Amino acid sequence: MTRATSPLSASLAPGLYLVATPIGAARDITLRGLDILGAADMIAAEDTRTARKLMELHGISRDGRQIVAYHDHNGPTARPRLLAALQEGKSVAYVSEAGTPMVADPGYQLVRDAHDADVPVFAAPGASAVLSALCVAGLPTDRFYFAGFPPNAAKARETFLKGLKSIPGTLVLYESPKRISELLKACLIVLGDRECALCRELTKKFEETRRGMMSDVLTSVIDHPPKGEIVLVIGEGAAEVASEGDIEAALREALQTLKVKEAAAMIAEDFSISRRDAYQMALKLGDK
């Protein structure tokens, strides 16, 4: 079992450090994040150009240190090099292109492999588009579900959204400006006309939040297409209460292939009713 303790000394203890970087405003990086970038033996970056620019902006010298590219396309070849450095007792700071590593980010497998190699893993938290959007959306945050980017294909997107329909909480999705209107149309069909907030260019000069019912936000998007990075925050749907007729119809269909007890158990789970009530209803239908 890996036991990681937070390093407090000026010199950086060996381990993998996940450093959150700004999603827009360059000053949205923590002092600790800057300290880690300045002290790490090696830096891994989803985009090395962005990492260099950030370091230059904050006066952090490379001092001959390596800045290694680590992204979706080179993960299998880059990970062994990073893990070798970690196993040698070096400190490695990993930064994604923007925001918090591990959130819609290629760092997952690197962290898994680091744990498997018994290497300490530390987080230097900071900017996150998910949390920033939840802050400004004006929707409940006691329970939320981050679903990332929906699939591009229409059928796959529909299946994806159906899987989110019954989640008891606020939904958070990422989307590009080119596909946001299609996503909103699909959401209206699958999820219904819920309250939502379209947040774009968070923390940047042209930051904007469009709030309202989804149908109104869609109209706004069609009339005034948004630009930049988009986070879509969707309110929880109202609980659907099935009618007795709907339950009976489902039971009749289930009884064609299942025994009474099995059919009742399945329908009770599908419609969130008690097994006793479903069983009694199934018995009555069987007598007719």
From TrEMBL:
SUPFAM superfamilies per record: Tetrapyrrole methylase
Compartment(s): Cytoplasm
Catalytic activity: cytidine(1402) in 16S rRNA + S-adenosyl-L-methionine = 2'-O-methylcytidine(1402) in 16S rRNA + S-adenosyl-L-homocysteine + H(+)
Pfam family, one: RsmI_C
The enzyme's E.C. designation: 2.1.1.198
Gene3D superfamilies: Cobalt-precorrin-4 Transmethylase, Domain 1, Methyltransferase, Cobalt-precorrin-4 Transmethylase, Domain 2
Family: Belongs to the methyltransferase superfamily. RsmI family.
Record-linked NCBIfam families: 16S rRNA (cytidine(1402)-2'-O)-methyltransferase
Protein name in the entry: Ribosomal RNA small subunit methyltransferase I
Lineage: Bacteria, Pseudomonadati, Pseudomonadota, Alphaproteobacteria, Rhodobacterales
